[in-house]
Amino acid sequence: MGEIAIKPRTIGALEKLEAYESNVRSYSRSFPALFSRARGSFMLSNDGRKFIDFLSGAGALNYGHNNHGIKAAIDGYLASDAVVHGLDMATPAKLQFMETFSSVILRERNLQYRFQFTGPTGASAVEAALKLSRKVTGRQNVISFTRGFHGMSLGALSASGNRFYRAASNASLPGVTFMPYDGYFGPSVDTASFLRSLLLDESSGIDSPAAILVETVQGEGGLNAASKEWLQSIQGIARDVGALFIVDDIQMGCGRTGEFFSFEFADLSPDIVVLSKSLSGYGLPLSMLLIKEGFDVWRPGEHTGTFRGNNLALVSATAAIDIYWRTTTFSDGVQRMGKLMRRRLEAIASRHGNSFAVLGRGMALGLDCPTPQIAATTARKAFEKGLIVERCGPDDQVVKFLPALTIDLETLHEGLQIFEESLAEALKLEKSH
Ligand SMILES: *Cc1c(COP(=O)(O)O)cnc(C)c1O
Fold this sequence. Notes:
Elements: H1 13-20, H2 27-30, E1 35-39, E2 42-45, E3 50-53, H3 56-59, H4 68-79, H5 92-106, E4 114-117, H6 122-137, E5 142-145, H7 154-158, H8 163-169, E6 176-179, H9 191-200, E7 211-214, E8 217-218, E9 224-225, H10 228-241, E10 244-248, E11 272-275, E12 288-291, H11 311-324, H12 329-350, E13 357-361, E14 364-368, H13 372-384, E15 387-388, E16 390-392, E17 398-401, H14 409-432
Parallel strand pairs: 3-15, 5-6, 5-7, 7-10, 10-11
Antiparallel strand pairs: 1-2, 2-3, 4-12, 8-9, 11-12, 13-14, 14-17, 16-17
The structure holds pyridoxal-5'-phosphate.
Pyridoxal-5'-phosphate binds next to helix 6.
């Protein structure tokens, strides 16, 4: 990171922050440090500690912190006094983004979509996708899956499984039927044929859905990865029952699983794709829907928002595509590193018998621990040793590995080494209790 003059830790800064900020804050509790600078896979705290970041903004920083290639595009744009905010007015930045995305990402994959820029959060894009599906079909019900996560606004929350988040809304969360995700009842139960039976049965009690909304790997739900066959069946079911097939690729898209879209491995063709998190490439808020031409039934202005397709984020998003997606070098590297990570985690798991399992796909991996306590202690010890790693799953028992896709091998191994040592310490502690 070059030479950085590090200030001594501001006395009591964390305590001051706590006094100001709502009780709702969360990551500042799991990772108690005053983070002042970041670059690539590292975050620096004000008191001079250096952390390897395996959280990557919950998947919003696939290209690392303050990626200098992308930053140059932002710097240039700002220096030129080009339009930063223009609601959804036409700008060269927006045109360039859509042209680049269409030619580099979509055309290469034989996909064709219209772009809808929504409000800046993932949740607002999910809202728009659900609203559009209901408008297209005239139906209300939406099929979502156990342990699915789609955001905190009421529509998106309705489609999210987590009881803690749902209860916090203190509202009714209607219009969604939850069905078992792939593997929910173990490997021998085909939950896709279960869904098919229910939706084709005129008396099952389940209303015909406007949409089937799915994550190919459940990021918050515990790194459960759906199989190719299951995903293809779900897409087929959606077609057969006249529902739109929506892939929420907010966390697993933009290269996380090794290809730009997480559904490429299954050769899917979703009716709507939802993208956010790493789309801007720089951690700037940017969300959009990719909509199949025939389903773009919006009337002008029917769904709006102040911050749709912010131009600065469109500029960084274009740069990210230009830098990383014009050839297959980057995605080949992600796939290689994903395999490496998996092997290392599997070796760690096998050292401890059958009580651990490696989950996920590509560079979105999880280690399912026998107890939430082990996962919690490991993550806490890892942080003390300089690794930022979070937990997910219904009981927070899965340690979640989301390193930047641009991480170098040495740092990746260093992070995994810290994790392994932390796990060993956590297990020792567990035994002594
Ligand atoms: C993060 C996430 C969301 C919500 O995005 P926000 O920006 O937090 O509103 C929705 N779906 C998935 C799969 C996510 O990972």
